[in-house]
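Support request, please re-run this one:
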Amino acid sequence: RSVLAARGGNHATAIRLTYAGGACGLLFIGIKAFEWSTKVAEGHTIVDNEFFSFYYMLTGVHLFHVLLGLLILGIVVRELGNPRKRRMVMVESSATYWHMVDLLWVVIFGLFYVMR
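Re-run finished. Output below.
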């Protein structure tokens, strides 16, 4: 939606929607921090067994990509707020990256939560 708003010249809406996407990323980080702290408190660490080794590594890789995505979204917000720096290729590329991270989470979710 942010990309569509930016294409239509509605940069205030694009910025607001980009912030909303970033809020979802921050929510994921909060949920993951709670989940990891619960697992560690139960004694499940990265060296506990093979499942938790893969669990922490794959969700950690995803967490890294979310953090990188948040940085990219921040750059997009900065660019959309400056009329001289508005590049649609940056907005579209960041949306593509963000959705790739979403897709990665769907795969990880299927591997660890549904098949567990």
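The helical segments are 2-7, 11-41, 50-81, 88-114. DSSP finds four helices and no strands in the chain.
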